[in-house]
Specification:
Largest sheet: 6 strands, mixed
Strand order of the largest sheet: 1-2-3-4-5-6
Oligomer: single chain
Order of helices and strands: HEEEHEHEEHHHH
Number of domains: 2
Radius of gyration: 18 Å
Distance between the termini: 40 Å
Length: 203
């Protein structure tokens, strides 16, 4: 049987929920799953992102999908995520292996005896190409400004547009500290979810 986005998404959601649950139980730290997670203020949306100490993105390409958008999606995702995994149907496996960066993980998804099987083809590595201002853009303007307030660096920026505030933020924080702030803020937001699985609207 050929795979489609709907059946992969449903099965992958359950796998990620279990992973998040185990992380919370073992680490006693907050973690979250985000579906249709927007980067660059929503100009690109990844199928799933999880935050469990790192930001890990999962992009689905089923047998019925095309890979036409993948090159542009890769550019966007590479600026933000610590880790990436492409979840791909057999039809696209060869192309995927030869397209995505070597640090991306690749998981083959197939249907056997009416069951969804996930098979790891390549383990994911660490992204060395993140862009600090792209990570800052995951914050809402007010959230970024609040960090500047905490650092006593908000003077002259309270009335500025969000892009100027993001530029100031990355000037104030090193990238690892910035990532800590972003992860903590995303998992603690309230009143921005549309359903049980949170979505990022890009503020």
């Amino acid at each position: 049987m050929t795979t489609n986005d709907k059946i992969i998404r449903k099965a992958l959601r359950e796998v990620l929920k279990k992973e998040i649950g185990n992380y919370k139980s073992e680490k006693k730290l907050p973690a979250e799953i985000f579906e249709e997670f927007g980067v660059s203020h929503g100009t690109a949306r990844i199928d799933f992102a999880i935050i469990n100490g790192v930001m890990h993105g999962y992009e689905i390409k089923s047998d019925r999908d095309t890979l036409d958008r993948l090159p542009e999606q890769m550019k966007q995702y590479n600026t933000v995520f610590d880790k990436m995994t492409l979840v791909v149907g057999k039809k696209h496996l060869y192309h995927a292996v030869n397209t995505v960066p070597s640090w991306w993980g690749i998981t083959l998804v197939k249907i056997e005896e009416n069951k969804i099987i996930f098979q790891t083809i390549r383990e994911n590595g660490e992204n060395q190409d993140q862009v600090d201002v792209s990570i800052a853009r995951l914050l809402w303007r007010e959230e970024a400004l609040k960090i500047l307030e905490e650092k006593n660096k908000a003077k002259g920026f309270r009335s500025k547009n969000r892009n100027i505030i993001y530029e100031k933020l990355v000037d104030v924080l090193d990238i690892n500290t910035l990532k800590d702030y972003v992860r903590n803020i995303l998992v603690s937001r309230r009143g921005w979810r549309s359903d049980e699985i949170p979505m990022l609207y890009g503020g």
